[in-house]
Design brief:
The chain is an alpha/beta fold. It contains eleven helices and 18 strands.
Length: 537
Amino acid sequence: MKIAASFLVASLAGLGFWYTRPARPADPVAVVWQGPLSNQSPLTPTPRSRFTPSTRKGYYNIDVVGDFMLPPTKTVTFCGAGRNLHVQQDRTKLLRRGFSAIEQTRMVPNVEIWLDGDPPRNWKSSLQQSQRSLIVYQAYFANSFNLPWAQNSELARDVTYRTPPGARAMRNTLFQASSELAGGCYGFGDCPQGTMKSTFSKIFLDIENEGTSSGNQQEQANLYTFMMKTLKDNVSPQTEVGSIAPVPHNSFGNSKAEHYMVKPDWLWNTPARQTNTSKQRGMPDDIVGKSYADYADFQMPGTYYLYPDFDYSAQHTGDGDRHWLASLLAEQEVNRKLSAKKRIAWHWVFNTQSADFPKSGKAEHAAPPAVAEGMAVFYWFTGAYGVLFWDDHKDLVPDQPSPADPQQQGLGNDRNYACYEHYMHGLWRLFKHHGDLFNGKEIYLNEATECSYDGGKTWIAYNANQIKTRNLPFVRAIVNGNQILIAATKAYARPEQTTKVMLRYIQNGYNFYTTLSLKGDEIFLGRSTMGRSTGSR
């Protein structure tokens, strides 16, 4: 029995109780359909590239797929490993394998970015502005500008915003650190006449000092707001700025039911206001009432995987269990409802390091083929804008002997990088064959994707956590006009296992039904032209 929340609050308050909202959302109600199903429509499966994954250490074959480009509405920045394997033969090949931009540290010196002193007169970078990205790490603030706050957020109340009027110019100010990024145009040879404005397409902040004590939160919110405002004042109109944190909500890969009930994290949208000392330290009044979220161009919800996400023998169906696809989708499902900002996730196809989880102490485990390919497919079904493809290693030297030090084994050149091939294969399957659907007119169904798991008797739409905890196949769809594109998989399924699931789309005048037969944990991708509804269901 349901009771109105206001009545319940009043009643319990009178009894000396406090009302708290449920820890998890109510389950959706299945729609029972007794009548005949309309004629089912076949799907045209998306081709797969035939290739033998590389077994060489420290190597991947960028030619497992042919040329293709991302649609203009999407972006993938390469900050991965091993561009040196192919860049000398063809500098542009990476930009024709699903990547649309290069991070500064992976650029070709004096061709894509000038690094040796002053560039020659009239020199211009070979990269278009849309092809340039920059990651600004914690050390930039802490070391280059002597701002220890970047490594210890409890020092927020000690940060000087900018040099006080009449004082000698100070370098260790947040204004100086943020405004000097304007020089990002210099290495590309395209600074505006008489001034500097950064001409990177994307600037990603990776400071990771967002957590702080409750008494320090206003100071922290002030600094993040001021930093983003200053950055935006010093970049070109085409430059977008965001940060790995804060995000509206960070699930850390857990995809729990309770995450669908959260409010935005405090640092995301706490308005700046003057504190007892902030004005003396140079905080301007023009940011009062504004928040970090007001200035950031995009949010960066996403999660790095731990080894349990790759372990097919582990338990994956509990509410708190790790699950590669549930975490990928849930992170986006939660955050897209908390903020309308564009979303760009960090993707890494190895496990991140955590001593708290088995076999996760080192980043030595590559994402299995279906996981690597699935990341490059399912992520885009959430309506996300972009990806920052990252690795903790830069250049690769193939076929090196294993290091004598056991702690270095399985790292860098000692890794198998076939996971890159599977990731590019996923991008190729999606955007080579269906790039026309990502034109800004598409509709992302996300957790409103209606499926039947009992042969069409009942229909229901689940979020990622609900699919995980019921051990059901994952299905997501994109609709654009009369076209429907469907991705599906039974995560962690055995190779010989076959799973059937039905999908329908009966909105906007369409009456579409189809049955999917999923093999193992392969990533199914298929497309169909939908017919108009005739009233039959």
